[in-house]
TrEMBL record:
Name of this chain's protein: Di-heme oxidoredictase family protein
Record keywords, A-Z: Heme, Iron, Metal-binding, Signal
Organism: Pseudoalteromonas neustonica
PANTHER family linked: CYTOCHROME C DOMAIN-CONTAINING PROTEIN, CYTOCHROME C PEROXIDASE-RELATED
Xref: InterPro entries: Cyt_c-like_dom, Cyt_c-like_dom_sf, Cytochrome_c_Peroxidase/MauG, DHOR
SUPFAM superfamilies: Cytochrome c
Domain Cytochrome c: 400-540
Coiled coil start-end: none
Signal sequence bounds: 1-19
Organism superkingdom: Bacteria
Length: 540
């Protein structure tokens, strides 16, 4: 099995044979002295790459707070107009239904986590990390939180998604579902007069801190989030009686993630991704890599018998397309129904039935014509926007420290999971989420630094919750392109699935499991070399 695309470009050289000549005597006294050829250093293939997404790279927004928010420069005029429509829709804040003045804006909730896409993907990047006012305090998640909790019942291992096991979907918590909504519209709860705008439950966040010490004595403070749930709708006065308090309920935090370059990642062929799998670690490098096979809502809507596809998006590669990822978030995170997810997230629960009765069935998730809350025009524009955001070009590629860091990145085998490059499909009829792909996405040489596979990342990052085939210790390799602009776009952003890492250095130190060897090699570098790895990452 191929573990990763070769990180080196061979350099070739010619040897000149040197000779010395004597005087004009008829006999030759020439001596030929063998010369040892110079040692030519092999450089990583990506060391001089600037355009990380080929023709879909943007070069004019570097070091800008809007570095992630530029359309692909190779869109047609019609595609650019659709992208710009999607840009507007991405920032649209929905309101409680009915909204007679602006009916196109109604439909949020009745329970939700945020009311617009930008709230979790600030400037198309990561959200600000939620922090208590004091290190030992805790804070209630509210409208400024770009993070939420997945929930489900422990249900063992699922190895082969099919119709008999509901395609390995997680088992929802009775009365709650598979996502915990910490916000709601005014009368979402039966006790709404005591809990205005309350969701399914209150979620509180605090942190515990530890010190990591390098072999050279330098220390780094690491923080780990601790979530507490209280005031559940089904038992507000005694949480221990809530369904959420059952011992078999599993929770997992999900932080918002960047949304640029997604169409390019979807256009990588299945074959190229699957070629990197090594589930039995056949080359004994400690790195496996496993695909996640997941339920495909688009295929199901099309009536395909086995609606299963390769997972590509989400922290555990639990969705197969940008369309499903976007429209599931529209219905889930925001509570706005659409043609792919036409029912409210809490449909057919006692909470929803009570809400409908209390509000005289004014907010059923459909309009008078039976259509969902988000039109197809709105949905298609938002999906296209997320598919066609450009990837920012690299910066400082001639900086000696950046170049040294690029070599160290390879030497400590970070590219064992963060595969540098792919070429997107050139298929003439390429479909993304059931819709014809833009031409500008096809045939691009891209450098996302991800293998798109699942890896065991160790106990420190484990959420102990299955997600389709992904175990409680597995996470999808995050793309690294654009990561150096994260703090430029949003200075308050954090890294990893729950935002725990304030810096790239902290994120590296949390790596374990299959990444433990690379992480340990990083810690054994001296301070200057560690910084070179970081500045290389910041160049991406």
């Amino acid at each position: 099995m191929i573990k990763a695309i070769k990180p080196y470009t061979p350099l070739f050289f010619s040897l000149a044979m040197l000779s010395g000549c004597g005087g004009g005597s008829s006999s030759s006294d020439t001596n030929t002295t063998p010369v040892t050829p110079p040692i030519v250093e092999e450089l990583p293939s990506y060391i001089d790459v600037s355009a990380l997404a080929g023709d879909a790279t943007t070069h004019d927004t570097n070091n800008s707070g809007h570095g992630f928010s530029t359309p692909m420069p190779n869109l047609s005029p019609a595609e650019l107009n659709l992208h710009l429509d999607g840009d507007t829709d991405f920032e649209t804040a929905f309101t409680t239904a009915p909204n007679d003045t602006h009916p196109d804006l109604d439909g949020v909730g009745p329970v939700f986590n945020n009311n617009n896409c930008n709230a979790c993907h600030q400037r198309d990047g990561r959200p600000s990390t939620v922090l208590p006012s004091t290190p030992d305090g805790r804070i209630k998640l509210g409208s400024d939180a770009g993070i939420f909790l997945r929930v489900s019942l422990a249900d063992g291992v699922c190895n082969q998604p099919n119709s008999t096991n509901d395609y390995c979907k997680n088992t929802p918590v009775p009365g709650f579902g598979d996502q915990l909504f910490h916000r709601g519209v005014l009368q979402a709860r039966e006790d709404w007069q005591q809990n205005h705008f309350g969701g399914q439950a209150d979620v509180y966040l605090s942190y515990k801190y530890t010190e990591f010490t390098y072999p050279d004595g330098q220390t780094v403070t690491l923080k780990q989030p601790v979530f507490e749930v209280d005031n559940a709708w089904d038992s507000p006065s005694n949480y221990s009686l809530s369904e959420l308090a059952s011992s078999d309920v599993q929770f997992s935090a999900r932080n918002g993630m960047p949304v640029f370059g997604l169409g390019l990642l979807e256009a990588i062929t299945d074959e190229d991704i699957l070629a990197l799998e090594d589930p039995i670690d056949s080359n004994n490098d400690g790195i496996k890599g496993q695909a996640n096979w997941v339920f495909d809502a688009v295929k199901a809507q099309q009536g395909i018998d086995n609606p299963v596809s390769l997972g590509r998006f989400g922290w555990k590669a639990s969705t197969p397309s940008v369309r499903q990822q976007s429209l599931a978030a529209l219905r889930g995170d925001m509570g706005v129904t659409n043609s792919l997810f036409a029912q409210e997230s809490i449909a057919n629960t006692l909470m929803h039935d009570s809400y409908l009765s209390r509000t005289n069935y004014q907010d059923t998730g459909t309009d008078a014509q039976g259509l969902p809350e988000a039109s197809d025009e709105f949905s298609n524009a938002v999906v296209f926007y997320a598919q066609t955001l450009a990837v920012p070009a690299r910066r400082d590629i001639s900086n000696p420290d950046v170049r040294a860091g690029a070599k160290l990145f390879s030497e400590i085998n970070c590219n064992g999971c963060h595969t540098p490059s792919f070429t997107t499909s050139t298929q003439s009829d390429l479909m993304l989420g059931g819709v014809k792909a833009p031409e500008g996405i096809k045939g691009q040489v891209i450098w996302p630094f991800t293998d798109m596979l699942l890896h065991d990342m160790g106990e420190g990052l484990a959420d102990n919750r299955r997600d389709f085939l992904a175990s409680g210790r597995q996470w999808k390799t995050r793309p690294l392109w654009g990561i150096g602009l994260t703090k430029t776009v949003n200075p308050g952003a954090g890294f990893l699935h729950d935002g725990r890492a304030t810096s790239l250095e902290e994120a590296i130190l949390w790596h374990g499991g299959e990444a433990q060897t690379s992480r340990d090699k990083f810690t054994q570098l001296n301070k200057d070399k560690r910084q070179q790895v970081i500045v290389f990452l910041q160049s991406l």
